[in-house]
Q: What sequence folds into this?
């Protein structure tokens, strides 16, 4: 289906200017505009009429979601979307959106129905909201809905940064963990996470052939023949302190470096800090735990924070974390740094002089 382009500009209270690309009978494209008085919904309906999408596709929301996923799969093939991204979309669509909204006709979708659906969610509300908004925007652009319903969905508050001041380990805490008794498989996973900032799935996907004695090449994630994203494929230099542990335990090239599944890594990690009780299941903190408990994924955050604090270069930390932009690293992977702020204050002392006095 041909993609149509249009936009809405607010001029004032209940006044809107519409811009749309339309095609003449000979196929010539031209840009037209129109001023509309009324609500935002009136403006969206008029824009749909101008674009020729006011008669929406006669299909259910479930069928429209199938077409949206097919569009996403085409983006995966051309490299503009990661396979792991569409896997997340499918999970939210199949387990949440399709069972509740799938039978509704696209023409019967309303903002009220969408908001009631979002209010009924008990978890992962923001993630489902974002996928639903993206799907609705695509459906509006491609003639499945005459109204831009995503504009009238209840907004979601921006989540706080994922890593706070107390969400990473200090150097002393890392040393306590590395010196604490644990199985070789788990300790290798901890060493790889703290030294290279690898994800749990990447660690469990590594083979000894990926390690050449100086660097590790990330080629795959657990259960896949490819890494999490295209940017995740990289060769990372291993710090010297970690090479000793890896060299002593090196196996055959086709052997797993960590002979554990990702869920087993998490379970063994939690056993360092808790006594696992069953029937009913509960966790009781250990008195002899190596240090305070943080989830295993926070070892990656710890690694990137240490790189950032040691170098003062967020781009270097982002490259080490193999993120597409440094904004992702800064917002979700490194903690607010007091030491970095102290460096800024020291720099200003160099401008005025630490012995500056007021006259």
A:
């Amino acid at each position: 289906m041909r993609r149509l382009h249009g936009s809405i500009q607010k001029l004032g209270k209940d006044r809107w200017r519409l811009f749309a690309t339309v095609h003449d009978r000979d196929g010539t494209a031209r840009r037209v505009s129109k001023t509309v008085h009324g609500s935002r919904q009136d403006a969206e309906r008029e824009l749909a009429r101008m674009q020729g999408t006011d008669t929406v596709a006669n299909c259910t929301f479930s069928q429209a979601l199938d077409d949206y996923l097919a569009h996403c799969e085409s983006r995966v093939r051309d490299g503009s979307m990661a396979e792991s991204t569409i896997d997340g979309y499918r999970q939210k669509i199949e387990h949440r959106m399709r069972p509740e909204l799938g039978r509704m006709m696209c023409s019967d979708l309303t903002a009220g129905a969408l908001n009631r659906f979002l209010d009924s969610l008990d978890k992962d509300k923001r993630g489902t909201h974002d996928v639903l908004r993206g799907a609705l925007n695509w459906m509006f652009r491609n003639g499945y809905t005459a109204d831009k319903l995503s504009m009238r969905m209840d907004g979601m508050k921006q989540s706080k940064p994922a890593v706070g001041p107390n969400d990473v380990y200090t150097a002393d805490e890392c040393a306590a963990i590395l010196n604490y008794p644990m199985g070789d498989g788990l300790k290798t996973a901890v060493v790889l996470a703290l030294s290279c900032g690898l994800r749990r799935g990447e660690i469990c996907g590594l083979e000894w052939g990926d390690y050449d004695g100086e660097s590790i090449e990330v080629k795959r994630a657990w259960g896949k023949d490819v890494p999490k994203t295209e940017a995740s494929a990289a060769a990372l230099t291993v710090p010297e302190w970690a090479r000793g542990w890896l060299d002593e335990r090196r196996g055959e090239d086709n052997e797993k470096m960590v002979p554990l599944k990702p869920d087993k890594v998490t379970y063994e990690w939690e056993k360092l800090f808790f006594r696992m009780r069953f029937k009913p299941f509960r966790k009781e903190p250990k008195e002899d735990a190596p240090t305070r408990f943080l989830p295993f994924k926070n070892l990656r955050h710890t690694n990137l924070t240490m790189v950032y604090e040691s170098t003062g270069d967020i781009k270097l930390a982002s490259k080490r974390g193999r993120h597409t932009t440094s904004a992702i690293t800064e917002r979700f992977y490194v903690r607010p740094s007091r030491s970095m702020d102290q460096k800024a204050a020291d720099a200003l002392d160099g401008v005025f002089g630490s012995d500056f006095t007021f006259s």
Observations:
- The first strand starts at residue 6 and ends at 12.
